[in-house]
Amino acid sequence: MTRFNALNLLRHALTGHKHWDEQWPQKEPKAEYDVVIVGAGGHGLGAAYYLASQHGITNVAVIDKGWLGGGNTGRNTTIIRSNYLYDESARLYDHAVDLWEGLSQELNYNVMYSRRGCLMLAHTVHDVQSFKRHIHANRLNGVDNRWLTKEEAKEYCPPLDLSPNARYPVMGAALQERAGTARHDAVAWGYARGAAARGVDIIENCPVTGIRRNADGSVAGVETAKGFIKAKKVAVSAAGHTSVVMETAGVRLPLESYPLQALVSEPIKPIFPCVVMSNAVHAYISQSDKGELVIGSGTDQYMSYSQRGGLPLIEHTIAAIVEIFPIFNRMRMLRKWGGIVDVTPDRSAILGKTPVPGLYVNCGWGTGGFKATPGAAHTFAWTIAKNEPHPINAPFTLERFRSGRLIDEAAAAAVAH
Ligand SMILES: Cc1cc2nc3c(=O)[nH]c(=O)nc-3n(C[C@H](O)[C@H](O)[C@H](O)COP(=O)(O)OP(=O)(O)OC[C@H]3O[C@@H](n4cnc5c(N)ncnc54)[C@H](O)[C@@H]3O)c2cc1C
């Protein structure tokens, strides 16, 4: 596969960019693979990439019911941060941030990781105390996070409104400078390209309808719209549909699927230099490189598999953003969309082995799994290859819902992005 570099760009420019290779070939499934991954989102494609690049396992298929990156990977608001409260989460998300920093070079594909910083606004005394607790916990874990006074926050993000009679006055903010955004599609495309170049088959438009097991209970392969595919190992990374797929193997997961929406405004000149989140008003905002304001909030209140979500939540989100940034009150919104997120009782992921030999699962990322993509994919590939957890994903077991050893980020972040 042709590498992207200055010389090749120049060479192809001279021939009108007509001779670039296909980025990843369209494949029909083989009868058998060492590993079949269900779900060609960032997590599934990333796991395939690391299986091939770090463990030399290339007889791998990644199968998606739709198009590659068409799930939550291509629908999210791309916020990346690692300022989670608990040690287990801090290690996992910070591992991901470490990988984000070198991902474009690693994949030879520009994922547009933009380290622009994330401000979490405090509007009440409780917010101030809670964020300071986060900052101390983060620092103990080597995760960057610091407290800004409201004046310092305004200096960092000039559109902030500090007027004392605001409905949600800003009392200060926690700042993680390594946080930021990346281009979501490019993450899926970069991993797909890297995996395909190493021999991985990416099979689109092929729903997996069931997981077949052998008489001894171990995994035998997957039933698909294109027939049965035998596999020594099956790894499921199907986000909002993971519980549906896993149920066909007889594994019940503690997951609930909710619509999560986002929306963007008309494009404007660069005005918004960072990411701003407010747990109190339950909304967050950043500006894309195209100039659109990218806005999101929490999930709908009810479970559903509709990829749309309800209008009241959008109204609430916009009202919240305008409360904090009156400067945007005449902006027009261009479009909104939704995805289906898989939420666990403690709002932390399940990443590892299952009770079925040869069956692995990576799910439960809820509203915040994009930021984890490289770290989760990297440790998931390790677990699949070695049939044992990587030290970083070891706490994220399915077993914790039996033992009660939860990683309770539900209480730690009202907006779990
Ligand atoms: C609106 C919105 C905003 C978000 N904002 C953020 C954010 O700012 N920051 C953040 O960190 N996270 C965010 N998230 C969450 C994040 O997008 C997800 O946690 C993450 O992308 C999950 O990646 P994935 O690869 O596991 O899933 P996906 O990208 O959803 O991939 C799963 C794939 O499985 C496929 N699939 C499902 N069932 C089957 C089947 N039966 N057979 C074959 N294939 C199947 C789907 O088609 C899909 O392509 C947001 C999500 C949404 C919806």
Please render the helix and strand layout as text.
Blueprint: H1 6-14, E1 32-38, H2 42-55, E2 60-63, E3 79-80, H3 87-107, E4 118-122, H4 125-140, E5 146-148, H5 150-156, E6 172-176, E7 180-181, H6 184-197, E8 201-203, E9 208-213, E10 219-224, E11 227-236, H7 242-247, E12 256-265, E13 275-278, E14 283-287, E15 293-299, H8 311-324, E16 333-343, E17 350-353, E18 359-363, H9 373-386, H10 400-403, H11 409-412
Parallel strand pairs: 1-2, 1-11, 2-8, 4-13, 11-18
Antiparallel strand pairs: 3-7, 4-6, 5-6, 9-10, 10-11, 12-15, 12-16, 13-14, 14-15, 17-18
Helix pairs in contact: 2-6, 2-9, 3-9
Bound molecules: flavin-adenine dinucleotide.
Residues 38-44, 63-66, 70-73, 75-79, 207-208, 237-239, 241, 245, 260-262, 296, 339, 341, 365, 367-371, 417 line the site of flavin-adenine dinucleotide.
Cofactor: FAD; FMN
Protein name: Sarcosine oxidase subunit beta
Keywords: Cytoplasm, FAD, Flavoprotein, FMN, Nucleotide-binding, Oxidoreductase, Plasmid
Entry keywords:
2 domains, 417 residues, binds flavin-adenine dinucleotide, eight-stranded mixed β-sheet, D-Amino Acid Oxidase, Chain A, domain 2, alpha/beta, FAD/NAD(P)-binding domain
Question: What features would you describe in this structure?
Answer:
The strands form 3 sheets. Strands 1, 2, 8, 9, 10, 11, 17 and 18 form an 8-stranded mixed sheet that branches. Strands 5-6-4-13-14-15-12-16 form an 8-stranded mixed sheet. Strands 3-7 form a two-stranded antiparallel ribbon. It has 417 residues and is an alpha/beta fold. The protein is built from 11 helices and 18 strands. The two termini are 35 Å apart. Bound molecules: flavin-adenine dinucleotide. Residues 38-44, 63-66, 70-73, 75-79, 207-208, 237-239, 241, 245, 260-262, 296, 339, 341, 365, 367-371, 417 line the site of flavin-adenine dinucleotide.
